[in-house]
Amino acid sequence: MRCGRLPLVLIGLSVGLMITSIVALSVGAVEIAPTQVIAILAHGLGLDLPRSFEPEQAAVLGAIRAPRVLLAILVGAALAVSGAAMQGLFRNPLADPALLGVSAGAALAAVSVIVLGATLLSGLTQVLGTATLPIAAFGGSLVATLLVHRLARRDGHTAVATLLLAGIAINAIAGAATGVLTFVADDNQLRTLTFWTMGSLGGATWSTVAVAAPLILAAIVLIPLHADALNAILLGESEARHLGFEPERVKTLLVILVALAVGTAVALSGIIGFIGLVVPHLLRLTIGPDHRWLLPGSALLGAILLLGADLIARTLVAPAELPIGIVTALLGGPFFLWLLASRRGQGF
Amino acid sequence: MLKAEKIGFRIAQHRLLEDVGCVVGPGEFVVVLGPNGAGKSTLLRVLSGDLTPTTGAVSLNGRRLRNWSPPVLARQRAVLPQQSALSFPFLVEDVVRMGRSPHRAVARERQETIVQEAMRRADVWHLAGRLYPSLSGGERQRVQLARVLAQIWDPTDLGPRYLLLDEPTSALDIAHQHQLLAIAREMLSGGELGVLAILHDLNLASAYADRILLLKNGRLVAAGPVAEIMNCADLAAVFGIPVQTIAHPQLAGRHLVITGHHVSDARPSS
């Protein structure tokens, strides 16, 4: 039976996340040994360990690396849980926030705010202040999710081909609109735009973490509460209703939570693809498709993978930095192709 | 009692059901017969609460269907779908376990016993550790049967339970067709459960039903005890094909049904 192994997998992933976090905190321009990382963290908690460190190291860790690592964990978890939830909602293992245009919708809204914030949308930015960007991104991802959902459904079923084609179309439209905005943007805005379209965690500060944490944590905590309903929805929406669930209500709620998580993630780190696709897949191979384990597992593994990708992004061409979206696409793209090849003949 | 009164159902200008009434009592096996497009599946979806009828009302144990809360209703009636396209790699026993999701208050040990028993009853116990997508169509159907049996396994204090079967035998071989319907009949024996099934095979209907509903073009043509319906002229009229019945050599009160033209009649006589 698989049941006995499942809690172990979650514990293993938690330990893995801790180790990856310590490694990510220790690697960078200023050298900090992993043991020093632990000592600095303990010191922050009022505990003095017998391992010395320079104040400069503590400063770099506190001001630069810690917020970046936390943002990576939050964004990775948000994207992976959203991917798992969307795959359940659409009853299709190929759903992914970036593939389906949800991320592009959020990015378009965010780019609109950056480029037009001072002119056309000045009323909006005056009212919402610094929250304009995340709120706009949330709205953009919500609109894109609803659009994909509406387009791909026929008679209570989600047509796979239509789903992916709708994603392509929405990606194309959002991409074109983003292109127009890029065309009219000034130099300063252009630099910021590059960041959106390719993804980066370089903008991480304590204040961005403070914005992201409550929104993403809310989604990560609330989505797994509907794990049973998602399992039943995999049987079919009528079947879920016959089992006493209310699939329409659950779906509406999950679409909003996914849009919240993806919108926030995109607002703070741009478009980072494939995490939502790859992570749930890897987990299904080891712990099976039960959402009660899959959703929390995805949060942990998504955080680990994005931390790893960010590590590659900032060390491979140091002192320069690769956009993290390029790293995840380079790793995730081939995985997606392998997935398509291995699922051939199964209706995908 | 599961009771539908004067059910009408329309989509756009199409009348899928008109003035259909039906009753399924505890301990009773009711079979719905009719040609394609007669409205059988629509009737089942109205009875399950999937569709809200345009006119008329459905009640379960005296309470209107829409007044039941979804989880409570799920403990009172289960629906076996025609087919279930589950493409995710769930274990068979996990699929059956989903049938227990409306019963959160029941102790875990009892849940497991019921899951095992339901798998034994539906003859899928040996498949427990297999992945659902790797099963044949017939095996999947029996796993789904185990799931819906697990869902309404125990009596509740809200009266009789009901099992609705939507063309349950279409994916099964002959032996498993009989096995599935025999299992459904076994469930009736306590007198606390009623079954309604849509069937296509007149002989299966004749062998297992207590009562038959005959539908055509969304209307109820005839309803009554199986022996009566099997011998009525309406049967041939509804299906548009000659029907002859002869008494079953072993089952008293049951009939064998011979449908269609005789071979010699079917050929044009010169």
TrEMBL record, chain A:
Major localization listed first in the record, in broad terms: membrane
Alphabetized GO MF terms: transmembrane transporter activity
CDD domains in UniProt: TM_ABC_iron-siderophores_like
Gene Ontology biological-process annotations: siderophore-iron import into cell
rRNA-binding as UniProt keyword: no
A GO CC term assigned to this protein in UniProt: plasma membrane
Family annotation (SUPFAM superfamilies): ABC transporter involved in vitamin B12 uptake, BtuC
Entry keyword set: Cell membrane, Membrane, Transmembrane, Transmembrane helix, Transport
Short name of one Pfam family: FecCD
Record keyword Cell membrane present: yes
Protein name, per record: Heme ABC transporter permease
Gene3D superfamilies for this protein: ABC transporter involved in vitamin B12 uptake, BtuC (1.10.3470.10)
Membrane topology: Multi-pass membrane protein
Localization annotation: Cell membrane
Family of this protein: Belongs to the binding-protein-dependent transport system permease family. FecCD subfamily.
Transmembrane segments: 7-27, 69-86, 98-121, 127-148, 160-184, 204-225, 253-281, 293-313, 320-341
PANTHER family: ABC TRANSPORTER PERMEASE PROTEIN MJ0876-RELATED, FERRIC ENTEROBACTIN TRANSPORT SYSTEM PERMEASE PROTEIN
TrEMBL record, chain B:
The keyword Signal is annotated on this UniProt entry: no
Short name of one Pfam family: ABC_tran
GO molecular function, one term: ATP binding
Keyword annotations from UniProtKB, A to Z: ATP-binding, Nucleotide-binding, Translocase, Transport
Domain ABC transporter residue range list: 2-242
Function noted in UniProt: Part of the ABC transporter complex HmuTUV involved in hemin import. Responsible for energy coupling to the transport system.
Cross-referenced PANTHER family: HEMIN IMPORT ATP-BINDING PROTEIN HMUV
Name listed for the protein in its UniProt record: Heme ABC transporter ATP-binding protein
Species per Swiss-Prot/TrEMBL record: Thiocapsa imhoffii
